[in-house]
Design goal:
Blueprint lengths: L10 H15 L9 H22 L3 H17 L2 H8 L1 H8 L21 E2 L2 E3 L10 E10 L9 E6 L19 E5 L5 E7 L4 E2 L5 H9 L4 E2 L2 E7 L6 E7 L18 E2 L2 E2 L6 E4 L2 E3 L3
This protein binds 3-methylcatechol and fe (iii) ion (FE).
3-methylcatechol (MBD) binds next to helix 4.
Amino acid sequence: MTDTTTEQATAAASGAAATEQFRSKQRSEAIDVDTKRVDTLVTELLASAHDIIRRHKVTYAEYDVLKSWLIQVGQDGEWPLFLDVWLEHVVEEVASENREGSKGTIEGPYYVLDAPALPAEATLPMREDEGGTPLLFQGQVTGVDGTPLSGAKVEIWHADDDGYYSQFAPNLPEWNLRGTVVADDQGNFKIHTVEPAPYQIPTDGSCGKLIDAAGWHAWRPAHLHLKVSAPGHQLITTQLYFQGGSHVEDDIAQAVKPELILAPTPVADGKGNEVTYDFVLDKA
Ligand code: MBD
Ligand code: FE
């Protein structure tokens, strides 16, 4: 963007928004954890840290760097980003161990509850001059036995062609590229949107500082986020990626699975791409 009066995207602003969103959508069962369980998990976590300090002879200088970095993560509001990038994939792996239906993956920090409801065939809210290749994303929601699920909902949210998410970056209309699509009575949906760009972890915050200090890259491959649900069935949270896109093979958040890679093809009229992807939900 060339307009010099527009606000710049900062790690602290997106971190603050992610922290606020997380607090408002917090899963209620996360609140009451059994004392014995807390004792076990925290004791083992600390024991792992003690072991690392001993084995690598961590110095006071390094301990102080860690302490000031941890303080900064909180001040930047980047705990949601840090946790979802580097830990959530294992929590998701454990949570979905016994599911038969479609693969899920991590939610990440940028989901917002209650995106506007849209009909079974819909265009996501977007700007008139929205950048990116047009994409028709369509499919059907069924049960594990193949029954079409009437009343299915497909919540979708994704970054724009600059890699920014509405509600977490400045200068974007509220709900841009977000919606809750209500499938038809056969579980079918047709969503018109644009292909997102890869996502770069903000380089100016504490997560960026860690990435720099460790010599890592800061990228996630381009992806669509989805939550798919239907009455009497388990909700799945997932993401879909684009075959051949940058960082599909080395996602910093380790959230890519082979089943989640789309291969869109050009539409007949030459305006953009289309792809079909069906979702299979386990019984609740
Ligand atoms: C993202 O867009 C995302 O999906 C995750 C998991 C982490 C950071 C940014
Ligand atoms: Fe994302």
